[in-house]
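Q: Hi! First time doing this. I have a protein sequence and I read that you can turn it into a structure. Is that right? Here it is:
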Amino acid sequence: MATYLVTGGAGFIGSHVVEALLPQGDTVRVVDNLSTGHRDNLAHLSGFDLTVGDLADPTVADEVARGVDYVVHLAALPSVPRSVSEPVESNHANVTATLNMLEASRRHDVKRMVFVSSSAVYGNAPTLPKHEDAVLAPLSPYALQKLIGEQYCRLYLELYGLDTVSVRYFNVFGPRQGPSLPYPGVIALFARSVIEGRAPTIHGDGEQTRDFTYVQNVVDGTLKACIATDVSGQVINVACGTRVSLNDIFTAICRLNGSRLGSEFGEPRTGDVRDSQADITRARTLLDFDPAVSLEEGLRQTLDWYRA
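A: Yes, that's right. Below is the predicted 3D structure, encoded as C-alpha cells:
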C-alpha cells in the first residue's frame, strides 16, 4: 500500500490517473487549482482527498507532499497557443509550480516524482520517430517550460538524491477532454463538431501528423514509471509509436459517427510542429509498456463519451 499525490488530478488526464489508482487500494491525494480541471471529472469517484490550491504557492506544495510516497506531477497549463499569448502566466504554472513540487518532495522524502513532460520539447526535429536522445528544439514557451522541468528533475536527482523520472506524452485524447476549453485537443474538437454536424476548422493543410495516444495508454505508462526499477533520471516517451494526419483523423471520426462532413482550413498556429511520432523502444524496455488500446478503439470510446 502506498500514498500517491496526483497534481492536476481534477484535469482530463489526472482524473484518469486517479481512477486507475483507486481500485489498487492505495491512498490517493489530489491537488488542483481548478483553472483547467473540474470537480465534475472526479464526481463519479470516491475515497480520495482533494486539495484545491495552486502549486505555484510553495506552502500548498509543502502541505500536499507530506507523507507521500509517489508524486505524479501533471499540473500545468498544457497549451502551446496559450503559452505564446501568455508566456509569464504559463511559466508560473509550468516552471515555478514544478520547482516547488520538487522542493517539497525533497523535503518530505518522497520515493519518486514522475514529471509529465511533452513531445513539444522535440520541436521540428527532422528525424522520425523521435527518440529521447534527439537534439531538442522547443518552438514555444510551453515546450521550453517542459524541457526546463525535465532538467530540474535531473538536477534534483543529481544534487539532492530525489528519485525522478520524466515521461513525455504525445497527443493524448479520450473521455473528459473538454472541447469547450479555450485550447482543446484536436480530437475533442473534431468529435464535438462531427456529433453536432458542424465542419471544424483545421489549422494548416491538415497533413501535419501526430502520435495520437488514448488516455488509458499514457496512464498505464505513467503508473509503471512510478514503480519501475532502474529508471531513475530517465526521460521516457509514452505514446503509441505511430503517426496519423489530422485529415485522416477527421475522416476516421466521421466514419465512426456515420457522418459525411467536410472540413475548413485556417492559418497554421504559431509554435505548432509539423510532424510528431514517438520512438517507444525505451518505454517497452524499461517499463514493459505496450499500448493496449488501439487508435480505432480509442476514437470509438471517445465518441461514445461525447455522445453521452
